[in-house]
Write a structure and sequence with these properties.
The chain is mainly α and about 375 residues long. About 70% of the residues lie in helices and about 5% in strands. A hairpin with a 5-residue loop joins strand 1 and strand 2. Helix 6 packs across helix 17. The mean pLDDT is about 95.
Length: about 375
């Protein structure tokens, strides 16, 4: 923790800046920053589940059916626990859970970055994750911070050979978001390669970690399936929201559609964004990132790019893919301290302004 303290202070400072800018923007726009962070979009669904349990469904025009079964249970469970122990509403408990989780995520990212390139790289990785354009979500009552914390610590445990911890944290990540499958993949594939290279001897702790890893994800899928009376129950629920996986066909059509009218600059921006994240993953491969990071980051990226649904959510869906930031963190760590600090400060200001603009507009779906 002492080694990570500078990184955590940097992270807290960046996120505080984002909230301050959001509050100032809200003063001008006449909107409550507290309401923007705790009681819009997914936050409302999570707090309703925390207060009333599952069972809420909205039938919308066009045949869409929005069921709260689409939302995994760990965040609302923690909201209910926190609101039972402390004098907090479920929405405020969600903000607390997100804030604490984001610090734990930053801690794990620091350790991973430090392991790859030294202490400066660890601090740089945390700073880059904090200043992402959609970084304001880390301060919302959303599940991204909680998931990233569990995923990052699980991957770190794989890197350090703590297989039981890795599997346990992967199971919790699987109770948080559907992309928990990426953490399971990192545990399983790394374990398989370790088994192959180690003379095909299976250690009990490695086997136990592999058994534990998918339990959370599978348990929720099975529970929703039983409740819906179908093996594909959870996929059907996601289909009601217009979500699912089609190999990227819908996203490709969406991008192509930007070029048919006056929105071609948006199409160019989308292509540049996709090219950038794919290029960063390729750089990570060339830099020989450890297998758990490549598997986890690549799976998160693939799931985000091949999902259909509301395409404005893709930057948020890719936010947990922190290994993509490692090449940038290593480059930032090589800069002189003054230049690195000025770079992070400039990007943090832009990120804070963009986050405030985003939440006062359409915001994250």
């Amino acid at each position: 923790m002492r080694r990570a303290a500078p990184a955590l202070l940097v992270y807290a400072g960046v996120r505080a800046l984002g909230v301050v800018v959001l509050a100032g923007w809200g003063q001008v726009a006449g909107k409550s920053p507290h309401q923007l962070l705790s009681a819009r979009w997914d936050s409302l669904w999570y707090s309703r589940i925390a207060e009333e349990g599952y069972g809420h469904t909205l039938h919308l025009s066009g045949g869409k059916v929005h069921s709260d079964l689409a939302f995994f249970p760990l965040l609302p469970w923690l909201e209910r626990l926190a609101s039972a122990v402390f004098p907090l509403s479920a929405a405020d408990a969600g903000l607390v859970v997100s804030a604490v989780s984001s610090l734990f995520a930053a801690w794990a990212l620091f350790l991973i970055g430090e392991r790859q390139g030294g202490r400066r790289a660890g601090v740089a990785l945390v700073a880059l994750w904090a200043v992402l354009p959609v970084g304001i979500v880390q301060s919302m009552a959303y599940s991204e911070s909680l998931f990233t914390a569990l995923a990052a610590w699980s991957v770190y445990c794989v890197l350090t050979g703590r297989w039981v911890w890795a599997g346990s944290l992967a199971a919790l990540a699987g109770l948080t978001r559907p992309v928990g499958a990426a953490v399971v993949a990192a545990v399983w594939i790394t374990a398989a390669v370790t088994w192959w290279r180690g003379g095909r001897r299976v250690e009990l702790r490695t086997l136990l970690g592999c058994v534990l890893a998918p339990l959370g994800w599978l348990a929720y899928f099975a529970w929703v399936g039983a409740r819906e009376g179908s093996v594909t129950g959870y996929l059907d629920v996601q289909g009601g929201w217009g979500n699912g996986f089609d190999g990227g066909v819908a996203f490709g059509s969406f991008v192509a559609g930007r070029f048919t009218g006056g929105a071609w600059p948006a199409g160019v921006g989308l292509l540049v964004g996709v090219a950038l994240v794919v290029w960063l993953y390729g750089v990570g491969v060339r830099q020989r990132q450890p297998l758990p990071l490549l598997v986890y980051g690549g799976t998160v990226l693939a799931l985000a790019l091949t999902a259909k649904g509301y395409f404005g959510s893709k930057p948020r869906l890719m936010m947990p893919a922190f290994p993509l930031l490692l090449p940038l963190a290593l480059a930032l760590a090589r800069l002189r301290t003054v230049r690195a600090v000025l770079t992070v400060c400039a990007v943090a200001l832009v990120s804070a302004a963009y986050g405030a603009f985003w939440l006062h507009g359409s915001g994250p779906p």
